[in-house]
Amino acid sequence: MSMFRQIISFRPIRWLAALTWSILLSILLLQPEADPVISLGLPTGPQTLAREAFFTALHMMAFALTCALWYWTWQGHLAFGASLTLGIVFAFVLGAATEYLQSFAPDRYPSLLDFIANLFGAILAARLIWQQRIGQMESDVRQPRNL
User: Fold this and answer.
1) How far is it, in rounded angstroms, from Cα 102 to Cα 95?
2) Which pLDDT score is estimated for 48?
3) Residue 66: closest CA among 93, 97, 87
4) Cβ contacts of residue 95 below 8 Å, gap of 6+?
């Protein structure tokens, strides 16, 4: 096994990656737009259709990654279906919590569109993980085993 595989297979590394990403994402979603703690250089200004589409895509990607990281974290502890379900649930809860908490953040507001994008991103990641798992299972069935 390669050194990289050994490192990423180490369970505390998985937990650290998922927790770090979740905290970073929460900070990014709850910080004020006018005076951000972490500036990403994202476009500011009036809410145009192009700007909203861009931010919706970012939400989808961020919560797809959230789902995938939490699935990966639980994968070593639980069965496939339970790990994937927990990945979706954690992304859903984080998305709902950050959208709600935005109502208390300066110059931020909760958005149903953002919440739907968060959920869609998590479901998309879960679907891709499921597809990959099914593909692996079909490949294993087709290949004869050497005994």
Assistant:
1) 11
2) 85
3) 87
4) 63, 66, 114, 115, 118, 119, 122
Specify burial of residue 110 (Cβ count, 10 A radius: 0-12, 13-18, 19+). middle
Q: What predicted TM-score, i.e. pTM, was given to this entire model?
A: 0.86
User: What is the residue whose two structure tokens read 């990966």?
Assistant: 72
Q: Are 18 and 69 in contact (CB under 8 A)?
A: yes
In terms of phi and psi (left: phi > 0; alpha: psi -120 to 50; beta: otherwise), the region of 45 is: left
Q: What is the pLDDT of residues 44-103, one digit of tens each?
A: 777 788 888 989 999 999 999 999 999 999 997 899 999 999 999 999 999 999 999 999
Side-chain-facing half-sphere of 2: CA atoms under 13 Å: 3
Q: Which DSSP string corresponds to 23-49? A: HHHHHHHHS-SSS-SS------SS--H
| Rounded Cα–Cα distance for residues 30 and 36 (Å) | 9
Both tokens assigned to 104:
């208390």
Q: Where are the beta strands (DSSP E) in the chain?
A: none
